[in-house]
Amino acid sequence: LYVCAVFVNGFACKDPKTALVEDFFFSGLHMAGNTSNKQGSAVTAVNVAQIAGLNTLGISLARVDYAPYGQNPPHIHPRATEILTVLEGSLYVGFITSNPENKLFSKVLNKGDVFVFPQGLIHFQFNYGTNKAIAIAALSSKNPGVITIANTVFGSNPSISGDILAKAFQVDKKMVDHIHAQFSEYAT
Amino acid sequence: LYVCAVFVNGFACKDPKTALVEDFFFSGLHMAGNTSNKQGSAVTAVNVAQIAGLNTLGISLARVDYAPYGQNPPHIHPRATEILTVLEGSLYVGFITSNPENKLFSKVLNKGDVFVFPQGLIHFQFNYGTNKAIAIAALSSKNPGVITIANTVFGSNPSISGDILAKAFQVDKKMVDHIHAQFSEYAT
Amino acid sequence: LYVCAVFVNGFACKDPKTALVEDFFFSGLHMAGNTSNKQGSAVTAVNVAQIAGLNTLGISLARVDYAPYGQNPPHIHPRATEILTVLEGSLYVGFITSNPENKLFSKVLNKGDVFVFPQGLIHFQFNYGTNKAIAIAALSSKNPGVITIANTVFGSNPSISGDILAKAFQVDKKMVDHIHAQFSEYAT
Amino acid sequence: LYVCAVFVNGFACKDPKTALVEDFFFSGLHMAGNTSNKQGSAVTAVNVAQIAGLNTLGISLARVDYAPYGQNPPHIHPRATEILTVLEGSLYVGFITSNPENKLFSKVLNKGDVFVFPQGLIHFQFNYGTNKAIAIAALSSKNPGVITIANTVFGSNPSISGDILAKAFQVDKKMVDHIHAQFSEYAT
Amino acid sequence: LYVCAVFVNGFACKDPKTALVEDFFFSGLHMAGNTSNKQGSAVTAVNVAQIAGLNTLGISLARVDYAPYGQNPPHIHPRATEILTVLEGSLYVGFITSNPENKLFSKVLNKGDVFVFPQGLIHFQFNYGTNKAIAIAALSSKNPGVITIANTVFGSNPSISGDILAKAFQVDKKMVDHIHAQFSEYAT
Amino acid sequence: LYVCAVFVNGFACKDPKTALVEDFFFSGLHMAGNTSNKQGSAVTAVNVAQIAGLNTLGISLARVDYAPYGQNPPHIHPRATEILTVLEGSLYVGFITSNPENKLFSKVLNKGDVFVFPQGLIHFQFNYGTNKAIAIAALSSKNPGVITIANTVFGSNPSISGDILAKAFQVDKKMVDHIHAQFSEYAT
């Protein structure tokens, strides 16, 4: 149960007289996330779950770490636009527009480059180099949400029927079963 | 280039004295869409592209037709919540919550049932029966957008790199090439 | 006391881990409402009062049934635009723009036609035919509200002073008393 | 054709370098409106039509003058809440809640009293005294709109069918014709 | 702890059946505030703290009294645009645009004049005459907030470091100490 | 004259078929701004003026560089909340709540710390150390605006009257003239 936050900048749910400076603070964004996983990336989120004072204020941050050849795989934020800047390394990034064009806008980003991923569109970042990469991303919601496409479609709990996915992705059901198995770690 | 619409309910871009009743009207939602396609479904959209008077008013409609065993495959609306009611037939429908739960909420809907798909979440409808099905959907935007997951990920123009998709979906690159080929019709 | 709803798509008031698929579901929109009343119409609403999961999501549905010569009399939704489609029969519909033009935009709708009633404007639907009619309406609020003009003005509880209404409608007070009596069923 | 306004507080449509102090100014709210009309009241509006700089800023003002026994008859603002304060005289004011309660909240206001009329609800002010009254009202929209119930329902252009209104107000059609005639001044 | 208010116009936190007319009412705006203070002005605010029914409705009022040569010193409303009208006397008013122009828009207002102060911009009113002045202001928030620049910068609790303020205002630290002392009444 | 931007994520003003990847891109945030100025700091902004594709998307970025003992002096963003993270060095930061408390919330931030400055509140960052410092800030508006308090109050163009400022800051007019002179570089 989320107990909403502080009052300092408008009517919220807590007596402003009891708000503390810690309600606006988070520590640790200088530390690399653990990228020892299948995608080779890690997201450290700083949103209203970490900083209660963000309640009603419409913004949050995240740090993304990428191992060499690591990627933040295709995903969407259902409630936010993202703006990202590269602190270290290089990234190949892109987003795809909605139907019917499904046009890929992609670009190689180097240190100091900034890129925008508009609200709700599928996007990704790929570290194609031999060194690690680091990015800082800002999102236009206190609680943007993340939907990683492959995990959500093939690793939901319970699973989406194989018949539906086979037809959606135009593959046979055996292939769907194979992909489902890769994401079984996410299921209960 | 979108030329925005009428003035009747607030300041927009056209002299309200020249607004016509046709600016608030659309005809033809009683006609079935053509479901002779791979997914066996058809969406007839009625949004600001069809009714200029919807500009600034935050709502639109759609009719969805489903052939037997047809489906409206997993997709998202980047800017809208959807509420759907079944006019004819039965549908197995669902949506999946965001990370980390990726919980599938699913249900069989019969005639007269109503279901909500919250903004930006992946959802689908599947006609598991031997008869056609029909639904009416309303969306909380004049221009909700549609992102069909498989088409967008595997049929974008140009294609997303096979390396990225192979790692994202945990399959080998040959399989990605195979799926890409299924969606080549969407690419230029 | 409204206890707000589920968490699935953003911070609301209930632990998302306890959300149920029933929180997004309603059953019965295929059943005709009872039109045996003075206006010859019935509205079956499906909003946040029926589907708790609509909380914060900005949309709702309604089914409207019309007996022959029945009507959904002039009314407004104080917090929503409406988009309506005719499932069966024919309707004469209209809305009136605000001061000083007070222009009536009206049209005969047949099966499959769609019409928009912009937020807060007075509008009506009249079944001028000898058969029943059915429409589905979507509204751009989880809780659009309905203000039926005649009932609200002449059937409020307690009554608005007859002097005020006589002058407003430019009739004598006896006539106001007469109309008040017609709506006494609505008063306590 | 509305040409939108100035840039000072955010992206609008005009070069901020050409904005003038006059774009934020209006003169004359100290002058009484002419209350020599059937309702015995006059509204002097100061919204985006008078002050271009209000564009996108969500607020406007109005002065209302009331002759003895004059009234601002039942009306709604489709896009705004109103907050009113009495500068001179006394007013009996009220608003009615939406269906199904249609509860009248009313009160006598004296000099210095403040009252709120929530968005989209029918409300009125009546000067029951023998002296003139003056009020200042603020509205939560640059372009709130006004729908005077009686004028809009019985004085629209063209007229709403007498059959519809007779049934809506539960009177015979002759009475509707009579009322229509009172508002013929508003029709073309 | 703010307990939110009434339900009449949308889902809020209190059973609408228990809402009272007093929840929409405030009394006393005809009475002059006490201007016997250093700035020679007094603001009487009427917002959601005074009228619980304003909750969610996006508007509030205030009366401002000015002694001869009194002023409402430079301040901002962090969450609202202000529109002000002069009831009595004359005022020299102004606002300054944001960086880099910092352009002063100023004007002398007489009785009945109206002026707009866009959201978040620094603004002031000065009564340069020998008579008192009175204004009514409306603000586009139920809880607009007030930040009086000098009091906030030099009278915060605890104080901002003198080094920071000396550099910001390009004065020596002794001067900052002097100004701090003037505002010590505001500190604990 | 601002010519608004691209269409990719909703109806804007330019044909989406002509949108380019450059409309979502900016380069150079890795380069330090020039801190050789009186305050010893430099802000490099990346908002809709630099990235046209941010139009309607509600977010922007900035890099802030601080020389040793440099500061980003007390300022406000009239249309945005800010969330900041320290990339290098240490900063003493704070914001002050609105009247009547004017409470200072302050904290020393080290590398990796994150802090929130709520919308419209006065805030500052001071590099109290002997090394340079760097921060990345995200803001909840495509066009947040910046109002540096001292520059705006004492360096506006034309100047605010010395009488007004002397009374506001409780200093004599000679002191105001002195401060005005420090900011004459900003005036025309």
From TrEMBL, chains A, B, C, D, E, F:
It is found in: Cytoplasm; Secreted, Cell wall; Secreted, Extracellular space, Apoplast. GO terms for cellular component: apoplast; cytoplasm. Keywords: Apoplast, Cell wall, Cytoplasm, Disulfide bond, Manganese, Metal-binding, Oxidoreductase, Secreted. It comes from the Eukaryota. CDD domains: cupin_OxOx (cd02241). Mn(2+) binds at H75, H77, E82, H123. It catalyses: oxalate + O2 + 2 H(+) = H2O2 + 2 CO2. Its main location: cytoplasm. Oxalate binds at N72, H77, E82. Residues 27-177 form the Cupin type-1 domain. One of its GO terms (molecular function) is oxalate oxidase activity. Belongs to the germin family. SMART domains: Cupin_1. Produces developmental and stress-related release of hydrogen peroxide in the apoplast. May play an important role in several aspects of plant growth and defense mechanisms. This is Germin-like protein. InterPro entries: Cupin_1 (IPR006045), Germin (IPR001929), Germin_Mn-BS (IPR019780), RmlC-like_jellyroll (IPR014710), RmlC_Cupin_sf (IPR011051).
